[in-house]
Specification:
The chain is of the alpha+beta class. It has two helices and three strands.
């Protein structure tokens, strides 16, 4: 069994196309959960999902600096 460590990141991504109440095409909604940290975020566009995941795939300390910028 693989254990979590500082270099292992698991993301659960849920995607759903939701109907809109106005006469417009459905919108995609994404729910992303990072493990083992448990941080959860919601997004409306996939590039934002990739940006969130990218925060974890950087050198140590960079993630904290990027979060402070947001």
């Amino acid at each position: 069994m693989t254990s979590f460590g500082p270099d292992l990141h698991v993301f659960i991504i849920r995607a759903r196309r939701e109907p809109r109440e106005i006469a417009a095409p459905p919108e995609w909604r994404f729910w992303v959960e990072h493990h083992p940290g448990g941080e959860q975020r919601n997004f409306r566009d996939f590039p934002a999902v990739l940006g969130f995941i990218g925060l974890y795939l950087t050198e140590p300390g960079v993630r904290e600096a990027r979060q402070e910028e947001q």
